[in-house]
Design a protein that fits this description.
Elements (H helix, E strand, L loop, with lengths): L15 H15 L11 H8 L3 H13 L3 E4 L3 E4 L2 H4 L2 H10 L4 H25 L2 H12 L5 H15 L3 H17 L1 H4 L2 H19 L3 H30 L1
Antiparallel strand pairs: 1-2
Helix pairs in contact: 1-3, 2-3, 6-8, 6-9, 6-11, 6-12, 7-8, 7-11, 8-9, 11-12
Length: 240
């Protein structure tokens, strides 16, 4: 059969299935492969990518787990509409596999700014004495870099909510921020700002002030998003 040019790229021999995942994922998310499109057979894909069918099968399984494909045995493999089926796993995969991941990162920062202030408000309402000690340790005593301290403080805020989904969502944000936080903390002014923020949020949670906790968190995340946007723009300009 005639094979779409999308599937005719030769790939390197390392981490073959992951590279196939990245290629097909990018094509689906860019719209080059439309929802409902039937992909070539395993045999045709293996020939096109110059790999064996086991590697192709593994890649297709990973794409199915990301809710990007429907694998119907005896019928074929079809692209799904990721806008209807996608999850946090898909966003994480997109940001780490795309050569142009700026949009995904900015989307994450925007959503973080919307969600996390409400977590801070809940934390101030629900924290226990033990929670407060853990948060105080993260702010005052833990021997951490500023990036790791910031991640730990946010993690403790999420745990103070006693809402499992809050903790899991915050873990997702932290995983991304751990890799891209240098865009923020390379500026010493932001280190100072974060140090002040940590003490302020600790006081708000300690004093059970949900509105104040929300305000403090919203303010720092708005500033952080703005700073990262500026850093990314400067980095892109320098590299162009």
């Amino acid at each position: 059969m005639s094979v779409n040019p999308v599937f005719t790229r030769s790939i390197s021999r390392s981490r073959l299935s992951d590279e196939i995942v990245t290629i097909i994922q990018q094509q689906i998310m860019s719209g080059a492969i439309a929802p409902g499109t039937r992909l070539p057979t395993e045999r045709d894909l293996a020939e096109s990518f110059k790999v064996n069918r086991t590697t192709v099968r593994e890649a297709l399984r990973k794409l199915e787990n990301l809710d990007l494909l429907d694998i119907n045995h005896g019928d074929g493999v079809y692209a799904r509409n990721y806008l209807e089926s996608g999850s946090l796993d898909l966003i994480k995969a997109a940001i780490y596999s795309s050569s142009d991941n700026c949009k995904s990162l900015l989307d994450i920062l925007e959503v973080r700014r919307i969600i996390v202030p409400e977590m801070a408000s809940l934390a101030a309402q629900r924290r226990t004495a033990a929670d407060l000690e853990d948060l105080r340790y993260a702010v005052l005593k833990a021997d951490l870099t500023m990036l790791e301290r910031d991640i730990k403080v946010h993690q403790m805020i999420a745990r103070c909510t006693h809402n499992l989904l809050c903790t899991i969502i915050l873990n997702f944000f932290n995983q991304v921020f751990r890799d891209y936080g240098y865009l923020y903390f390379d500026d010493e002014r932001n280190v100072t700002r974060s140090r002040t923020f940590h003490h302020e949020i600790l006081e708000a949670v300690k004093n059970r002030q949900p509105e104040e906790a929300r305000r403090i968190m919203a303010e720092v995340l708005f500033y952080a998003e703005k700073a990262v946007r500026s850093a990314m723009a400067a980095k892109a300009k320098k590299e162009s």
